[in-house]
Amino acid sequence: MSDHTTSDHDFVRLFSPKIMEKIPDPAFESALHVFTSSPGAGKTTLLRAFTPTALRAFWNSRRLPERSDAYQALAAKGIIDEDKGPQLLGALLSCASGYADLPPGTEHSDANLFRALLDCRVVLRTLRNLAALLGFQSPADLDSVTLTYTDQASDIKTIPTSANCIELISWAEERERRVYERLDSVQVEAAEPMASSVRFESVLWMQTARFHYMDQEVAPRRLLMIDDIQKLRRKQRAILVEELTEMRPSIPIWLAERSIALGDQLLSQGSRLERDLHQYSLEDMWGATRGSSQFATFAQNILDRRLDVQSAIPSGAFSQYLRDELRPEDSRGEVAIAIKKFRASVERHETNPRYAKWFEHASDLLNTDTLGALRELYTTRILLVRDAAKRQLTLELIQLSASDLEERDNSQVQGAAEIFMREELHVPYYFGIERLCTLATNNVEELLALAAGLYDALQAKQILRKNELLLSPLEQEKALREVAKARRDFIPKNHTEGTRAQRLLDSVGAFCRERTFLPSAPYAPGVTGVRLSNSELQKFNDPTFTSLPQSRLVKKVLSECVAENLLFTRPSQASTNREAGTVFYLNRILCMYHGLPLQMGGWQDVALEDLIEWMERGGGKSRRQKLEID
Protein backbone atom coordinates (compact mmCIF):
# COMPACT_ATOMS: atom_id res chain seq x y z
CA MET A 1 0.00 0.00 0.00
CA SER A 2 2.78 2.42 0.86
CA ASP A 3 5.17 1.35 -1.87
CA HIS A 4 2.69 1.71 -4.70
CA THR A 5 0.49 4.62 -3.64
CA THR A 6 1.77 7.91 -5.01
CA SER A 7 -0.41 10.47 -3.25
CA ASP A 8 -1.39 10.99 0.36
CA HIS A 9 -4.97 11.44 -0.79
CA ASP A 10 -5.04 7.89 -2.15
CA PHE A 11 -3.18 6.60 0.87
CA VAL A 12 -5.82 8.00 3.24
CA ARG A 13 -8.61 6.54 1.11
CA LEU A 14 -7.08 3.06 1.32
CA PHE A 15 -5.73 3.14 4.87
CA SER A 16 -7.68 1.03 7.36
CA PRO A 17 -7.64 2.53 10.88
CA LYS A 18 -8.37 -0.88 12.40
CA ILE A 19 -4.63 -1.39 12.81
CA MET A 20 -4.65 1.53 15.27
CA GLU A 21 -6.67 -0.56 17.69
CA LYS A 22 -3.83 -3.08 17.91
CA ILE A 23 -1.06 -0.55 18.62
CA PRO A 24 -0.67 -0.42 22.42
CA ASP A 25 -0.74 3.00 24.06
CA PRO A 26 2.79 2.58 25.51
CA ALA A 27 4.12 2.59 21.93
CA PHE A 28 3.50 6.37 21.91
CA GLU A 29 5.49 6.89 25.11
CA SER A 30 9.20 7.62 25.47
CA ALA A 31 11.19 4.45 24.76
CA LEU A 32 12.55 2.44 21.87
CA HIS A 33 9.85 0.40 20.15
CA VAL A 34 10.78 -2.28 17.58
CA PHE A 35 8.09 -3.54 15.19
CA THR A 36 8.82 -6.80 13.39
CA SER A 37 6.89 -8.82 10.83
CA SER A 38 7.20 -10.78 7.65
CA PRO A 39 7.09 -8.84 4.36
CA GLY A 40 3.70 -7.37 3.59
CA ALA A 41 2.28 -7.31 7.12
CA GLY A 42 1.88 -3.52 7.07
CA LYS A 43 4.92 -2.02 8.84
CA THR A 44 5.65 0.70 6.27
CA THR A 45 1.97 1.52 5.90
CA LEU A 46 1.66 1.98 9.65
CA LEU A 47 4.71 4.28 9.78
CA ARG A 48 3.58 6.37 6.85
CA ALA A 49 0.27 7.10 8.59
CA PHE A 50 2.19 9.25 11.11
CA THR A 51 4.05 11.41 8.59
CA PRO A 52 2.93 15.07 8.39
CA THR A 53 1.42 14.93 4.89
CA ALA A 54 -0.63 11.86 5.80
CA LEU A 55 -1.77 13.39 9.10
CA ARG A 56 -2.85 16.57 7.32
CA ALA A 57 -4.75 14.46 4.79
CA PHE A 58 -6.53 12.64 7.64
CA TRP A 59 -7.35 16.00 9.26
CA ASN A 60 -8.61 17.56 6.03
CA SER A 61 -10.93 14.60 5.42
CA ARG A 62 -12.28 14.46 8.97
CA ARG A 63 -15.76 15.56 7.95
CA LEU A 64 -16.11 12.94 5.22
CA PRO A 65 -18.21 10.10 6.71
CA GLU A 66 -16.26 7.37 4.90
CA ARG A 67 -12.93 8.58 6.34
CA SER A 68 -13.89 9.96 9.73
CA ASP A 69 -13.04 6.67 11.49
CA ALA A 70 -9.32 7.13 10.80
CA TYR A 71 -9.47 10.72 12.05
CA GLN A 72 -11.31 9.65 15.21
CA ALA A 73 -8.69 6.98 15.94
CA LEU A 74 -5.87 9.52 15.64
CA ALA A 75 -7.75 12.18 17.61
CA ALA A 76 -8.37 9.70 20.43
CA LYS A 77 -4.60 9.33 20.84
CA GLY A 78 -4.08 13.12 20.83
CA ILE A 79 -2.18 13.04 17.54
CA ILE A 80 -4.64 15.35 15.75
CA ASP A 81 -6.55 18.26 17.27
CA GLU A 82 -9.95 19.22 15.86
CA ASP A 83 -9.03 22.92 15.56
CA LYS A 84 -5.23 23.00 15.43
CA GLY A 85 -4.64 20.00 13.21
CA PRO A 86 -1.76 17.52 13.59
CA GLN A 87 0.11 17.84 16.89
CA LEU A 88 2.73 15.19 16.24
CA LEU A 89 5.85 15.77 14.15
CA GLY A 90 6.85 12.43 12.74
CA ALA A 91 10.12 11.88 10.87
CA LEU A 92 10.31 8.72 8.76
CA LEU A 93 13.61 7.45 7.37
CA SER A 94 14.42 4.27 5.51
CA CYS A 95 17.62 2.24 5.82
CA ALA A 96 17.06 0.73 2.38
CA SER A 97 19.92 2.68 0.81
CA GLY A 98 23.17 4.34 1.79
CA TYR A 99 23.96 3.03 5.26
CA ALA A 100 25.17 -0.45 4.37
CA ASP A 101 27.43 1.13 1.71
CA LEU A 102 29.56 2.84 4.34
CA PRO A 103 33.14 1.50 4.29
CA PRO A 104 33.75 -1.35 6.74
CA GLY A 105 37.18 0.00 7.81
CA THR A 106 37.70 -0.15 11.53
CA GLU A 107 34.72 -0.58 13.76
CA HIS A 108 35.22 2.92 15.22
CA SER A 109 35.32 4.78 11.90
CA ASP A 110 32.43 2.76 10.51
CA ALA A 111 30.26 3.60 13.53
CA ASN A 112 31.21 7.29 13.33
CA LEU A 113 30.17 7.59 9.71
CA PHE A 114 26.99 5.65 10.38
CA ARG A 115 26.02 7.96 13.26
CA ALA A 116 26.97 11.07 11.26
CA LEU A 117 24.88 10.05 8.26
CA LEU A 118 21.86 9.11 10.34
CA ASP A 119 22.10 12.32 12.39
CA CYS A 120 22.13 14.68 9.43
CA ARG A 121 19.27 12.80 7.77
CA VAL A 122 17.14 12.90 10.92
CA VAL A 123 17.65 16.66 11.22
CA LEU A 124 16.97 17.20 7.53
CA ARG A 125 13.88 14.99 7.46
CA THR A 126 12.49 16.57 10.64
CA LEU A 127 12.80 20.10 9.28
CA ARG A 128 11.34 19.20 5.90
CA ASN A 129 8.46 17.44 7.63
CA LEU A 130 7.94 20.49 9.84
CA ALA A 131 7.42 22.54 6.69
CA ALA A 132 4.88 19.99 5.45
CA LEU A 133 3.14 19.92 8.81
CA LEU A 134 2.71 23.71 8.76
CA GLY A 135 1.45 23.59 5.18
CA PHE A 136 4.42 25.47 3.69
CA GLN A 137 5.13 25.14 -0.01
CA SER A 138 8.84 24.45 0.56
CA PRO A 139 11.39 24.22 3.39
CA ALA A 140 12.58 27.71 2.41
CA ASP A 141 9.47 29.08 4.14
CA LEU A 142 10.84 27.88 7.48
CA ASP A 143 12.66 31.20 7.88
CA SER A 144 9.55 32.35 9.74
CA VAL A 145 9.97 29.55 12.30
CA THR A 146 12.33 29.99 15.25
CA LEU A 147 13.92 27.38 17.48
CA THR A 148 14.61 27.32 21.17
CA TYR A 149 16.16 24.49 23.14
CA THR A 150 15.78 22.96 26.58
CA ASP A 151 18.71 22.73 29.00
CA GLN A 152 19.54 19.21 27.76
CA ALA A 153 20.74 20.72 24.48
CA SER A 154 24.05 21.56 26.17
CA ASP A 155 25.02 17.89 25.69
CA ILE A 156 24.84 18.25 21.90
CA LYS A 157 28.34 18.58 20.40
CA THR A 158 28.15 17.96 16.63
CA ILE A 159 24.75 19.45 15.70
CA PRO A 160 24.55 23.25 15.84
CA THR A 161 21.88 24.51 18.23
CA SER A 162 20.88 27.23 15.84
CA ALA A 163 17.70 29.27 16.16
CA ASN A 164 17.38 29.38 12.38
CA CYS A 165 15.86 26.41 10.52
CA ILE A 166 17.42 27.37 7.19
CA GLU A 167 20.90 27.32 8.72
CA LEU A 168 20.24 23.88 10.15
CA ILE A 169 19.07 22.58 6.78
CA SER A 170 22.27 23.90 5.19
CA TRP A 171 24.34 22.24 7.90
CA ALA A 172 22.58 18.89 7.41
CA GLU A 173 22.97 18.97 3.64
CA GLU A 174 26.67 19.85 3.94
CA ARG A 175 27.21 17.14 6.56
CA GLU A 176 25.65 14.51 4.29
CA ARG A 177 27.80 15.68 1.37
CA ARG A 178 30.95 15.31 3.45
CA VAL A 179 29.97 11.80 4.55
CA TYR A 180 29.62 10.77 0.92
CA GLU A 181 32.91 12.44 0.06
CA ARG A 182 34.58 10.16 2.57
CA LEU A 183 32.63 7.23 1.17
CA ASP A 184 33.77 7.99 -2.39
CA SER A 185 37.34 8.77 -1.41
CA VAL A 186 39.90 6.08 -2.25
CA GLN A 187 41.80 6.99 0.90
CA VAL A 188 39.49 7.95 3.73
CA GLU A 189 42.34 9.71 5.53
CA ALA A 190 42.77 12.06 2.57
CA ALA A 191 39.19 13.33 2.82
CA GLU A 192 38.30 16.45 4.76
CA PRO A 193 38.19 15.67 8.50
CA MET A 194 34.83 15.55 10.28
CA ALA A 195 33.79 16.02 13.88
CA SER A 196 33.60 12.64 15.58
CA SER A 197 30.09 11.30 16.25
CA VAL A 198 30.22 9.24 19.41
CA ARG A 199 26.45 8.87 19.79
CA PHE A 200 23.20 9.53 17.92
CA GLU A 201 22.86 13.20 18.79
CA SER A 202 19.95 13.73 16.40
CA VAL A 203 17.72 12.07 18.99
CA LEU A 204 18.88 14.60 21.61
CA TRP A 205 18.34 17.41 19.13
CA MET A 206 14.86 16.19 18.20
CA GLN A 207 13.69 15.90 21.80
CA THR A 208 15.16 19.22 22.99
CA ALA A 209 14.26 21.49 20.05
CA ARG A 210 11.12 23.62 20.35
CA PHE A 211 9.58 25.16 17.23
CA HIS A 212 7.73 28.48 17.34
CA TYR A 213 5.58 29.93 14.61
CA MET A 214 3.51 33.09 14.94
CA ASP A 215 4.34 33.28 18.66
CA GLN A 216 3.02 29.80 19.32
CA GLU A 217 4.78 26.50 19.86
CA VAL A 218 3.97 24.03 17.12
CA ALA A 219 4.33 20.24 16.90
CA PRO A 220 4.89 19.67 20.63
CA ARG A 221 4.94 15.87 20.21
CA ARG A 222 7.68 14.04 18.30
CA LEU A 223 8.02 10.59 16.79
CA LEU A 224 11.15 9.27 15.11
CA MET A 225 10.51 6.34 12.75
CA ILE A 226 13.27 4.32 11.10
CA ASP A 227 12.14 1.67 8.61
CA ASP A 228 13.89 -1.31 6.99
CA ILE A 229 16.60 -1.68 9.61
CA GLN A 230 17.11 -5.24 8.37
CA LYS A 231 18.98 -3.57 5.48
CA LEU A 232 21.72 -2.44 7.85
CA ARG A 233 24.82 -4.46 8.47
CA ARG A 234 24.58 -6.66 11.55
CA LYS A 235 26.98 -4.41 13.53
CA GLN A 236 25.14 -1.25 12.46
CA ARG A 237 21.83 -2.68 13.57
CA ALA A 238 23.31 -3.76 16.91
CA ILE A 239 24.81 -0.28 17.46
CA LEU A 240 21.54 1.43 16.60
CA VAL A 241 19.38 -0.69 18.93
CA GLU A 242 21.88 -0.80 21.79
CA GLU A 243 22.80 2.89 21.82
CA LEU A 244 19.24 4.17 21.38
CA THR A 245 18.13 1.94 24.24
CA GLU A 246 20.93 3.14 26.51
CA MET A 247 20.06 6.79 25.73
CA ARG A 248 16.62 6.36 27.33
CA PRO A 249 15.03 8.81 24.89
CA SER A 250 12.28 11.13 26.09
CA ILE A 251 10.42 10.71 22.78
CA PRO A 252 9.06 7.50 21.22
CA ILE A 253 11.35 5.96 18.61
CA TRP A 254 9.94 3.33 16.29
CA LEU A 255 12.18 0.91 14.46
CA ALA A 256 10.66 -1.40 11.85
CA GLU A 257 12.32 -4.49 10.48
CA ARG A 258 11.52 -7.71 8.71
CA SER A 259 11.59 -10.76 10.92
CA ILE A 260 14.50 -12.14 8.91
CA ALA A 261 16.77 -9.77 10.86
CA LEU A 262 16.03 -11.72 14.05
CA GLY A 263 17.61 -14.85 12.62
CA ASP A 264 17.77 -17.71 15.13
CA GLN A 265 15.81 -15.69 17.70
CA LEU A 266 12.67 -16.60 15.76
CA LEU A 267 12.97 -20.16 17.03
CA SER A 268 12.61 -19.01 20.65
CA GLN A 269 9.41 -17.78 22.23
CA GLY A 270 8.52 -14.41 23.67
CA SER A 271 9.15 -10.77 22.81
CA ARG A 272 11.70 -8.60 24.55
CA LEU A 273 10.01 -6.31 27.04
CA GLU A 274 12.24 -4.01 29.05
CA ARG A 275 11.86 -0.57 30.58
CA ASP A 276 13.40 1.23 27.62
CA LEU A 277 12.98 -1.34 24.83
CA HIS A 278 9.71 -2.85 23.64
CA GLN A 279 9.39 -5.32 20.81
CA TYR A 280 6.17 -6.04 18.95
CA SER A 281 5.36 -8.61 16.30
CA LEU A 282 2.54 -7.49 14.00
CA GLU A 283 1.52 -11.11 13.40
CA ASP A 284 1.39 -11.80 17.14
CA MET A 285 -0.81 -8.75 17.65
CA TRP A 286 -3.47 -10.46 15.56
CA GLY A 287 -2.71 -13.89 16.98
CA ALA A 288 -3.55 -13.00 20.58
CA THR A 289 -6.96 -13.28 22.24
CA ARG A 290 -9.70 -12.12 19.86
CA GLY A 291 -6.93 -11.42 17.35
CA SER A 292 -8.25 -13.58 14.52
CA SER A 293 -11.72 -11.99 14.60
CA GLN A 294 -10.17 -8.51 14.76
CA PHE A 295 -7.91 -9.27 11.81
CA ALA A 296 -10.98 -10.42 9.85
CA THR A 297 -12.61 -7.04 10.53
CA PHE A 298 -9.38 -5.26 9.56
CA ALA A 299 -9.05 -7.36 6.39
CA GLN A 300 -12.62 -6.74 5.27
CA ASN A 301 -12.18 -3.02 5.86
CA ILE A 302 -9.11 -3.04 3.60
CA LEU A 303 -10.90 -4.97 0.85
CA ASP A 304 -13.98 -2.75 0.99
CA ARG A 305 -11.84 0.40 0.70
CA ARG A 306 -10.01 -1.01 -2.29
CA LEU A 307 -13.25 -2.00 -3.95
CA ASP A 308 -14.48 1.57 -3.58
CA VAL A 309 -11.63 2.99 -5.69
CA GLN A 310 -12.07 0.72 -8.74
CA SER A 311 -14.69 0.85 -11.46
CA ALA A 312 -14.61 -2.56 -13.16
CA ILE A 313 -17.38 -3.91 -10.92
CA PRO A 314 -19.88 -2.09 -8.69
CA SER A 315 -18.31 -0.94 -5.40
CA GLY A 316 -19.54 -1.97 -1.98
CA ALA A 317 -18.65 -4.73 0.44
CA PHE A 318 -16.24 -7.28 -1.04
CA SER A 319 -18.10 -10.05 0.81
CA GLN A 320 -21.27 -9.43 -1.22
CA TYR A 321 -19.59 -11.04 -4.23
CA LEU A 322 -18.62 -14.24 -2.40
CA ARG A 323 -21.34 -16.81 -1.81
CA ASP A 324 -20.75 -18.19 1.66
CA GLU A 325 -23.14 -21.13 1.74
CA LEU A 326 -23.17 -24.45 -0.10
CA ARG A 327 -26.03 -25.45 -2.37
CA PRO A 328 -26.95 -28.95 -3.57
CA GLU A 329 -25.23 -28.35 -6.92
CA ASP A 330 -21.93 -27.70 -5.14
CA SER A 331 -21.69 -31.40 -4.23
CA ARG A 332 -21.76 -32.35 -7.93
CA GLY A 333 -24.36 -34.99 -7.12
CA GLU A 334 -21.73 -37.37 -5.73
CA VAL A 335 -23.95 -38.73 -2.99
CA ALA A 336 -23.49 -42.23 -4.40
CA ILE A 337 -19.74 -41.96 -3.81
CA ALA A 338 -20.35 -40.86 -0.22
CA ILE A 339 -22.63 -43.85 0.38
CA LYS A 340 -20.05 -46.23 -1.09
CA LYS A 341 -17.26 -44.85 1.06
CA PHE A 342 -19.43 -44.92 4.16
CA ARG A 343 -20.32 -48.56 3.71
CA ALA A 344 -16.72 -49.52 2.92
CA SER A 345 -15.50 -47.84 6.10
CA VAL A 346 -18.05 -49.37 8.48
CA GLU A 347 -18.98 -52.58 6.71
CA ARG A 348 -17.38 -54.83 9.34
CA HIS A 349 -19.42 -53.17 12.09
CA GLU A 350 -22.87 -53.47 10.45
CA THR A 351 -23.72 -56.68 12.30
CA ASN A 352 -22.57 -55.33 15.66
CA PRO A 353 -25.63 -54.66 17.84
CA ARG A 354 -23.72 -51.89 19.64
CA TYR A 355 -24.16 -49.64 16.59
CA ALA A 356 -27.67 -50.68 15.52
CA LYS A 357 -29.21 -47.31 16.37
CA TRP A 358 -26.39 -45.46 14.65
CA PHE A 359 -26.88 -47.47 11.46
CA GLU A 360 -30.61 -46.74 11.58
CA HIS A 361 -29.77 -43.04 11.74
CA ALA A 362 -27.29 -43.44 8.87
CA SER A 363 -29.92 -45.20 6.73
CA ASP A 364 -32.20 -42.19 7.05
CA LEU A 365 -29.31 -39.94 5.99
CA LEU A 366 -28.51 -42.12 2.98
CA ASN A 367 -31.98 -41.42 1.64
CA THR A 368 -31.61 -37.63 2.03
CA ASP A 369 -29.83 -35.93 -0.86
CA THR A 370 -28.67 -32.78 0.95
CA LEU A 371 -25.28 -31.41 1.92
CA GLY A 372 -26.36 -31.27 5.55
CA ALA A 373 -27.16 -34.98 5.45
CA LEU A 374 -23.80 -35.69 3.82
CA ARG A 375 -21.96 -33.81 6.56
CA GLU A 376 -23.90 -35.68 9.23
CA LEU A 377 -23.16 -38.97 7.47
CA TYR A 378 -19.43 -38.24 7.54
CA THR A 379 -19.68 -37.23 11.20
CA THR A 380 -21.39 -40.54 11.99
CA ARG A 381 -18.69 -42.45 10.12
CA ILE A 382 -15.87 -40.73 12.02
CA LEU A 383 -17.51 -41.28 15.42
CA LEU A 384 -18.31 -44.92 14.65
CA VAL A 385 -14.76 -45.74 13.52
CA ARG A 386 -13.39 -43.85 16.54
CA ASP A 387 -15.60 -45.74 19.00
CA ALA A 388 -14.78 -49.09 17.40
CA ALA A 389 -11.06 -48.44 17.83
CA LYS A 390 -11.56 -47.59 21.51
CA ARG A 391 -13.89 -50.58 22.08
CA GLN A 392 -11.11 -52.96 21.07
CA LEU A 393 -9.29 -51.72 24.15
CA THR A 394 -12.22 -51.37 26.58
CA LEU A 395 -14.47 -54.27 25.39
CA GLU A 396 -17.65 -52.21 25.99
CA LEU A 397 -20.72 -54.01 24.64
CA ILE A 398 -23.46 -51.56 25.67
CA GLN A 399 -25.69 -50.55 22.75
CA LEU A 400 -25.27 -46.91 21.78
CA SER A 401 -28.32 -44.71 21.28
CA ALA A 402 -28.91 -41.87 18.85
CA SER A 403 -28.47 -39.43 21.75
CA ASP A 404 -24.98 -40.89 22.37
CA LEU A 405 -24.15 -39.99 18.80
CA GLU A 406 -25.39 -36.45 19.32
CA GLU A 407 -23.44 -36.03 22.57
CA ARG A 408 -20.17 -37.02 20.91
CA ASP A 409 -20.67 -34.67 18.01
CA ASN A 410 -18.88 -31.32 18.25
CA SER A 411 -17.46 -28.56 16.10
CA GLN A 412 -14.07 -30.33 15.76
CA VAL A 413 -15.68 -33.49 14.40
CA GLN A 414 -17.88 -31.46 12.04
CA GLY A 415 -14.77 -29.64 10.84
CA ALA A 416 -13.13 -32.98 10.13
CA ALA A 417 -16.26 -34.10 8.27
CA GLU A 418 -16.09 -31.00 6.05
CA ILE A 419 -12.44 -31.53 5.11
CA PHE A 420 -13.14 -35.26 4.46
CA MET A 421 -15.98 -34.26 2.14
CA ARG A 422 -13.67 -31.97 0.25
CA GLU A 423 -11.00 -34.67 -0.04
CA GLU A 424 -13.32 -37.47 -1.12
CA LEU A 425 -16.22 -35.71 -2.84
CA HIS A 426 -14.56 -32.44 -3.97
CA VAL A 427 -17.17 -30.44 -2.06
CA PRO A 428 -15.76 -26.87 -1.85
CA TYR A 429 -14.21 -25.95 1.48
CA TYR A 430 -12.09 -22.81 0.86
CA PHE A 431 -14.73 -20.17 0.25
CA GLY A 432 -16.50 -17.26 1.93
CA ILE A 433 -15.15 -14.04 3.41
CA GLU A 434 -14.23 -15.56 6.79
CA ARG A 435 -12.04 -18.27 5.30
CA LEU A 436 -10.53 -15.75 2.90
CA CYS A 437 -9.40 -13.67 5.90
CA THR A 438 -8.11 -16.79 7.67
CA LEU A 439 -6.09 -17.79 4.60
CA ALA A 440 -4.20 -14.47 4.76
CA THR A 441 -2.39 -15.65 7.95
CA ASN A 442 -2.52 -12.12 9.44
CA ASN A 443 -0.64 -10.68 6.46
CA VAL A 444 -2.04 -7.82 4.36
CA GLU A 445 0.03 -8.60 1.27
CA GLU A 446 -1.18 -12.20 1.23
CA LEU A 447 -4.75 -10.99 1.77
CA LEU A 448 -4.48 -8.74 -1.29
CA ALA A 449 -2.93 -11.52 -3.40
CA LEU A 450 -5.82 -13.85 -2.53
CA ALA A 451 -8.44 -11.15 -3.11
CA ALA A 452 -6.82 -10.25 -6.43
CA GLY A 453 -7.42 -13.80 -7.64
CA LEU A 454 -11.10 -13.51 -6.73
CA TYR A 455 -11.29 -10.02 -8.24
CA ASP A 456 -9.92 -11.33 -11.55
CA ALA A 457 -12.60 -14.01 -11.53
CA LEU A 458 -15.26 -11.36 -10.90
CA GLN A 459 -13.94 -9.22 -13.74
CA ALA A 460 -14.05 -12.21 -16.09
CA LYS A 461 -17.63 -12.87 -15.06
CA GLN A 462 -18.48 -9.22 -15.65
CA ILE A 463 -17.01 -9.33 -19.15
CA LEU A 464 -18.94 -12.51 -19.96
CA ARG A 465 -22.08 -10.75 -18.70
CA LYS A 466 -23.15 -13.53 -16.39
CA ASN A 467 -26.62 -13.08 -14.92
CA GLU A 468 -25.34 -13.04 -11.33
CA LEU A 469 -22.11 -11.27 -10.40
CA LEU A 470 -21.43 -13.69 -7.57
CA LEU A 471 -18.67 -16.27 -7.20
CA SER A 472 -19.87 -19.72 -6.18
CA PRO A 473 -17.89 -21.69 -3.59
CA LEU A 474 -16.43 -23.81 -6.41
CA GLU A 475 -15.34 -20.73 -8.37
CA GLN A 476 -13.82 -19.18 -5.26
CA GLU A 477 -11.86 -22.31 -4.40
CA LYS A 478 -10.52 -22.63 -7.94
CA ALA A 479 -9.25 -19.03 -7.95
CA LEU A 480 -7.77 -19.27 -4.46
CA ARG A 481 -5.96 -22.54 -5.14
CA GLU A 482 -4.28 -20.95 -8.17
CA VAL A 483 -2.92 -18.27 -5.82
CA ALA A 484 -1.82 -20.97 -3.37
CA LYS A 485 0.04 -22.86 -6.08
CA ALA A 486 1.83 -19.69 -7.18
CA ARG A 487 2.77 -18.97 -3.55
CA ARG A 488 4.22 -22.44 -3.10
CA ASP A 489 6.03 -22.42 -6.47
CA PHE A 490 7.68 -19.08 -5.65
CA ILE A 491 9.40 -20.39 -2.51
CA PRO A 492 12.65 -21.51 -4.24
CA LYS A 493 13.08 -18.02 -5.72
CA ASN A 494 12.66 -16.16 -2.45
CA HIS A 495 15.08 -17.90 -0.07
CA THR A 496 18.79 -18.49 0.17
CA GLU A 497 17.97 -22.19 0.58
CA GLY A 498 14.72 -22.07 -1.36
CA THR A 499 14.71 -25.61 -2.73
CA ARG A 500 15.35 -27.08 0.71
CA ALA A 501 12.69 -24.80 2.24
CA GLN A 502 10.14 -25.95 -0.34
CA ARG A 503 11.08 -29.59 0.21
CA LEU A 504 10.75 -29.22 3.97
CA LEU A 505 7.38 -27.45 3.75
CA ASP A 506 6.03 -30.00 1.26
CA SER A 507 7.11 -32.78 3.62
CA VAL A 508 5.41 -31.10 6.58
CA GLY A 509 2.28 -30.79 4.43
CA ALA A 510 2.42 -34.46 3.43
CA PHE A 511 2.94 -35.50 7.07
CA CYS A 512 -0.03 -33.38 8.18
CA ARG A 513 -2.22 -34.87 5.46
CA GLU A 514 -1.35 -38.41 6.53
CA ARG A 515 -2.36 -37.63 10.13
CA THR A 516 -5.42 -35.56 9.18
CA PHE A 517 -7.11 -38.17 7.00
CA LEU A 518 -6.87 -41.13 9.35
CA PRO A 519 -10.37 -42.75 9.32
CA SER A 520 -11.07 -41.90 12.96
CA ALA A 521 -9.89 -38.26 12.61
CA PRO A 522 -8.09 -38.48 15.98
CA TYR A 523 -6.81 -34.90 15.71
CA ALA A 524 -10.03 -33.34 14.42
CA PRO A 525 -10.47 -31.22 12.46
CA GLY A 526 -6.91 -32.00 11.33
CA VAL A 527 -3.17 -31.55 11.75
CA THR A 528 -1.67 -28.34 10.38
CA GLY A 529 1.66 -28.14 12.21
CA VAL A 530 4.55 -29.99 13.80
CA ARG A 531 6.01 -29.49 17.26
CA LEU A 532 9.58 -29.51 18.50
CA SER A 533 9.77 -30.14 22.24
CA ASN A 534 12.17 -28.12 24.32
CA SER A 535 14.51 -31.11 24.36
CA GLU A 536 14.57 -31.12 20.57
CA LEU A 537 15.07 -27.35 20.44
CA GLN A 538 18.00 -27.67 22.86
CA LYS A 539 19.81 -29.73 20.24
CA PHE A 540 20.41 -26.46 18.39
CA ASN A 541 22.73 -25.54 21.28
CA ASP A 542 24.36 -28.96 21.64
CA PRO A 543 27.94 -28.76 20.29
CA THR A 544 27.77 -32.39 19.16
CA PHE A 545 24.68 -31.65 17.10
CA THR A 546 25.61 -28.18 15.88
CA SER A 547 28.90 -29.48 14.51
CA LEU A 548 26.93 -31.20 11.77
CA PRO A 549 26.37 -29.01 8.66
CA GLN A 550 22.79 -30.28 8.30
CA SER A 551 21.86 -29.07 11.79
CA ARG A 552 23.05 -25.53 11.07
CA LEU A 553 21.27 -25.64 7.73
CA VAL A 554 17.91 -26.78 9.09
CA LYS A 555 18.10 -24.03 11.71
CA LYS A 556 18.67 -21.46 8.97
CA VAL A 557 15.85 -22.86 6.82
CA LEU A 558 13.40 -22.92 9.74
CA SER A 559 14.30 -19.34 10.67
CA GLU A 560 13.78 -18.12 7.10
CA CYS A 561 10.45 -19.93 6.81
CA VAL A 562 9.23 -18.25 10.01
CA ALA A 563 10.59 -14.87 8.89
CA GLU A 564 8.74 -15.14 5.58
CA ASN A 565 5.47 -16.24 7.23
CA LEU A 566 5.64 -19.68 5.60
CA LEU A 567 5.63 -21.12 9.10
CA PHE A 568 4.42 -19.38 12.24
CA THR A 569 5.19 -20.43 15.78
CA ARG A 570 3.05 -20.82 18.87
CA PRO A 571 4.19 -21.93 22.34
CA SER A 572 3.02 -25.31 23.59
CA GLN A 573 2.66 -25.63 27.34
CA ALA A 574 3.84 -28.63 29.37
CA SER A 575 1.31 -31.22 30.54
CA THR A 576 1.42 -34.31 32.73
CA ASN A 577 2.73 -36.51 29.92
CA ARG A 578 4.77 -34.12 27.79
CA GLU A 579 7.18 -31.25 28.13
CA ALA A 580 6.71 -27.77 26.71
CA GLY A 581 7.80 -26.90 23.20
CA THR A 582 7.15 -24.83 20.09
CA VAL A 583 4.61 -25.61 17.38
CA PHE A 584 5.47 -24.70 13.79
CA TYR A 585 2.19 -24.21 11.94
CA LEU A 586 1.97 -24.11 8.17
CA ASN A 587 1.00 -20.82 6.58
CA ARG A 588 -2.75 -21.08 5.90
CA ILE A 589 -2.26 -20.66 2.13
CA LEU A 590 0.03 -23.68 2.22
CA CYS A 591 -2.64 -25.51 4.21
CA MET A 592 -5.00 -24.89 1.31
CA TYR A 593 -2.37 -26.06 -1.17
CA HIS A 594 -2.10 -29.35 0.72
CA GLY A 595 -5.87 -29.70 1.22
CA LEU A 596 -5.72 -29.23 5.00
CA PRO A 597 -8.22 -27.55 7.34
CA LEU A 598 -7.67 -23.98 8.50
CA GLN A 599 -8.40 -24.33 12.20
CA MET A 600 -5.63 -24.04 14.77
CA GLY A 601 -4.68 -26.59 17.39
CA GLY A 602 -3.85 -29.78 15.51
CA TRP A 603 -0.14 -30.67 15.62
CA GLN A 604 2.16 -33.66 15.98
CA ASP A 605 5.51 -34.10 17.68
CA VAL A 606 8.50 -34.68 15.43
CA ALA A 607 12.23 -34.97 16.01
CA LEU A 608 14.81 -32.57 14.65
CA GLU A 609 16.26 -35.47 12.68
CA ASP A 610 12.89 -35.77 10.92
CA LEU A 611 13.08 -32.16 9.77
CA ILE A 612 16.64 -32.65 8.52
CA GLU A 613 15.64 -35.71 6.51
CA TRP A 614 12.58 -33.93 5.10
CA MET A 615 14.70 -30.94 4.15
CA GLU A 616 17.29 -33.10 2.35
CA ARG A 617 15.17 -35.90 0.91
CA GLY A 618 11.51 -35.02 1.33
CA GLY A 619 8.93 -37.66 2.10
CA GLY A 620 6.91 -36.62 5.14
CA LYS A 621 7.30 -39.79 7.22
CA SER A 622 8.61 -39.40 10.77
CA ARG A 623 11.20 -41.73 12.28
CA ARG A 624 8.55 -43.17 14.61
CA GLN A 625 6.26 -43.96 11.66
CA LYS A 626 9.09 -45.69 9.82
CA LEU A 627 9.85 -47.81 12.87
CA GLU A 628 6.18 -48.78 13.06
CA ILE A 629 6.22 -49.74 9.37
CA ASP A 630 9.41 -51.75 9.79
In brief:
The chain is an alpha/beta fold.
Could you explain how this protein is built, in words?
The chain is α/β, with parallel strands linked by helices. It has 4 domains: 8-285, no CATH class; 305-325 and 429-489, no CATH class; 328-425, no CATH class; 494-629, no CATH class. The chain has helices at 8-14, 43-48, 52-60, 68-76, 107-133, 165-184, 201-208, 234-247, 282-287, 291-308, 335-346, 356-366, 371-394, 402-408, 411-425, 433-439, 444-463, 473-489, 498-516, 534-538, 543-546, 549-563, 588-593, 608-617, 623-629, and strands at 31-37, 80-81, 85-86, 88-94, 145-149, 209-213, 216-218, 221-227, 252-258, 277-281, 529-533, 567-572, 581-586, 603-605. The strands form 4 sheets. The protein has a 5-stranded parallel β-sheet. The protein has a 4-stranded mixed β-sheet with strand order 12-13-11-14. A 3-stranded antiparallel β-sheet has the order 5-6-7. Strand 8 (221-227), helix 8 (234-247) and strand 9 (252-258) form a beta-alpha-beta unit. Helix 5 (107-133) packs antiparallel against helix 6, helix 19 (498-516) crosses helix 24 and helix 22 packs across helix 24. The radius of gyration is 29 Å and the shape is elongated.
